Amino acid sequence: MFQSYTIKDIAKALGLSTSTVSRALNGSYEIGTETKKLVLEYAEKINSRPNPIALSLKDQKSHSLGVVVAEVANTYFSQAINGIESIAYNRGYHVIITQTHESAAREAANVQHLLSRHVDGLLVSLSSEITDLSQYKYLHEKGFPIVFFDRAAPDIDTHKVIANNYKGAFEATELLINTGFTKIAHLTNSANLLISQDRLEGYKDALEKNNIAYNAQLVKHCNHGGMVHDEVEEAIKELVNLGEDRPDAIFVASDRLTTSCLATLKKLKLKVPKDIAVAGFTNSDVAELFDPPLTVVRQPAFQIGQIATEMLIKVIESKRPVTEFSTETLDTILIPRESSIKVK
């Protein structure tokens, strides 16, 4: 990278430790801006070529936003990213997208990479595996702009944009109850996620309102959010093998889980809705083309992405430190279709 010069040479020339130089070159948030600038400008000088990171440090703006999501192929996230880009590019910002694939380790590495690219702020939807939020807390306490969307961190007081997950879950569960189903299973993401907790509460309250006893055996958590097919298949096999408690319907709590659930039911030769009815959260544009057409809870993903980006840019461009934050909650839409009809 630096021809005949090594990190040790740079450290000696600047009177710094090699570890400090290494972290500065990698963009670590543990190193102060002035030290980074000193190291990067010296590295540029001895390398005799422009360094875009060093240049961006001169005015403290890269005009880029970092995005952390579970999976771009997930319909919800692809729509949210479209919303993010629709605002960002019109405001002169580039977007750098990273995927966690529901891994906490990959999420931490992605955030470090985005910081090394000197993004001006982060738009984050947490991975299902993450429990340690210290990295985000540290950044937030240092005044680094972060907005959470969809999967928000409950203990960090910053801007958040979410769907009304409780309402969506309550309405979908009650629809199944009103259709005549009484043994309703709940297939959901990791219990770590606030969205999972809110959707579980909506499911429980719909049962309670309609005098149906909650049965913990009917709730299955898939910690990889449907990305590991064997995990979904095992959960559904456990449900259909419950004997007298076997469910007659399933309420599924996430986009990828819903499609994985349908694929698993088909593999097990279970017909929807004759053998088991299904309603689920999904933003798939082809849900009505499924066989049978799928009853869905749809989230305003595009608008969530737009609002989150507007909030982030407002914080980035604020002339003073931002100390007051808000949570925007957008309504979900329940779309009943044939997958939740009771077959006589």
UniProtKB/TrEMBL annotation:
Residues 5-59 form the HTH lacI-type domain. The keyword DNA-binding applies. Pfam families: LacI, Peripla_BP_3. Transmembrane segments: none annotated. The keyword Transcription regulation applies. InterPro entries: HTH_LacI, LacI/GalR-like_sensor, Lambda_DNA-bd_dom_sf, Peripla_BP_I. It comes from the Bacteria. Keywords: DNA-binding, Transcription, Transcription regulation. GO terms for molecular function: DNA-binding transcription factor activity; transcription cis-regulatory region binding. This is Substrate-binding domain-containing protein.
